[in-house]
Amino acid sequence: MNRRPVLPMLAILMAVGLAGCASNQNLPPTNGTTWQPPHNATPEDAATADRLWQVFERYEGTPYRYGGASANGFDCSGFIATAFDEALGRQLPRTTSQMLASGDVVGRDQLRAGDLVFFRIKGKDQHAGIYMGGDSFIHSSTSIGVTRSSLNGYYWRDRFSQARRFD
C-alpha cells in the first residue's frame, strides 16, 4: 500500500484545522492608541463609545474565564455586564440568554455604539459583544480574552444572529 498521497492530504488538513483555531478575526491590538468613533456617529453615540472604550482599554487582554465577571477573567456576558456598569452605570442581565430576552431588537443596519451583538455558534446564540461603530465590537473571546474584533471578519460575519439595544 502506498502512503505517499496521504501525507500531502494530512498536511493540508492540519493547515486548515490550525487556521480554524485562529478564526476569530481580531483586529490589531490597540497598544494605547486613541480610539476614534466612526465619522457618522452622533455625539451621544460617540460619548457612549468613548466611555465603553475606556473600560475596554482597562481590561484588554484579560483572559477568558467561564462565569467570570472581574479582572481575574471574563466570559462574554460578564465582560458586557461589567462594561455597562462601569462605563454607563447601567445594570444588564448577567447571562447571554437573559440578555437575549431583554432589550429592544435592532436590525444590523441600525446598529449604534453600545448595542449588543449576538452570534450563533454550534446552532445556538451563545456569544455576545458590544458594538463600537464601523464594523468593530469588543468582547471576551474564549481563545484570547477581552479583545476587539470585526463584524465582517470571516469567523464572525456568518455567525451574527441579532442585536439588542438597552436604553
UniProtKB/TrEMBL annotation:
Keywords: Hydrolase, Lipoprotein, Protease, Signal, Thiol protease. InterPro entries: NLP_P60_dom (IPR000064), Papain-like_cys_pep_sf (IPR038765), Peptidase_C40 (IPR051202). It comes from the Bacteria. Residues 46-167 form the NlpC/P60 domain. It comes from Marinobacter salarius. Gene3D superfamilies: endopeptidase domain like (from Nostoc punctiforme) (3.90.1720.10). The keyword Protease applies. Belongs to the peptidase C40 family. This is Probable lipoprotein NlpC. Residues 1-24 form the signal peptide. PROSITE patterns: NLPC_P60, PROKAR_LIPOPROTEIN.
